[in-house]
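We modelled the chain as a single entity of 106 amino acids. Its sequence is:
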Amino acid sequence: MDKRIVIFALIYISCGSDQPKRSGAAAGGTLQPDGMAVFRQRCVVCHGADGTLGLNGAKDLTQSATPLEERIQIITNGKKLMTPFGTILSPEEIKAVAEYTLTLKK
């Protein structure tokens, strides 16, 4: 398979649309972000679907002991080669992704 096709596919998967899928209704009738959907849209290229990929120095999320608040800060501001998502995702989406990553821990 042509490497350009693989690279394009990875970029397409990681970039996707700007509107991640949302599920569930919170008080006030607003929808809460779906952390898994945002993770799959923005994070799988480096972290993998199960959190173990480690591409570009990405941490193995199944082994991480990082607490929720620190995860939120890392997702918001980035770390080393990780993209800062503070201007890309809403605070609610960032929190939803951080919470989802906690479910990957083994």
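As a brief sanity check on the tokenised model: Residues 3-102 form a domain with the Cytochrome Bc1 Complex; Chain D, domain 2 fold (CATH 1.10.760.10). Confidence is low (pLDDT under 50) at residues 20-26.
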